[in-house]
Amino acid sequence: MSADHPMAGVAPEPGVHKPDPVLISNGLQRSFGGLHAVDIDHLEIQRHTVTSLIGPNGAGKTTLFNLLTGFDKPDAGEWHLDGGALVGIAAFRVARRGMVRTFQLTRSLARLTVMDNMLVAAKDNEGEGLWGSLTGGWHATERANEQRASGLLVRFGLDHMANEYAGGLSGGQRKLLEMARALMMEPEVVMLDEPMAGVNPVLTQSLLSHITGLRDGGKTVVFVEHDMDVVQEISDWVIVMAQGRVIAEGPPEIIAKNPAVIDAYLGAHHGEAAE
Amino acid sequence: MDWASVLVDGILATIGPITAAYAISAIGLNLQFGYAGLLNFGHVAFMLVGAYGTAITVDLGGPLWLGIIVGILAAALLGLLLGLPTLRLRADYLAITTIAAAEVIRLLVRSSWAQPLTNGVFGIQGFADSFFDLNPFPPSQLYGIGSLIVTGRKLWVMLVGWTLVMLLTLLIRRLIKSPWGRVLKAIREDEDATISLGKNVFAYKLQALMIGGSIAGIAGILLAVEQQNVTPDAYLPKITFILYVIVILGGAGTILGPVVGAVVFQFLFFTIDALMVNAQANIGWVGDLLTPAAAGQIKLVLVGVGMMVLMIFRPQGVLGNREEVLIDER
Ligand SMILES: Nc1ncnc2c1ncn2[C@@H]1O[C@H](COP(=O)(O)OP(=O)(O)O)[C@@H](O)[C@H]1O
Ligand SMILES: [Mg+2]
Question: For position A39, which CATH number holds?
Answer without folding.
Answer: 3.40.50.300
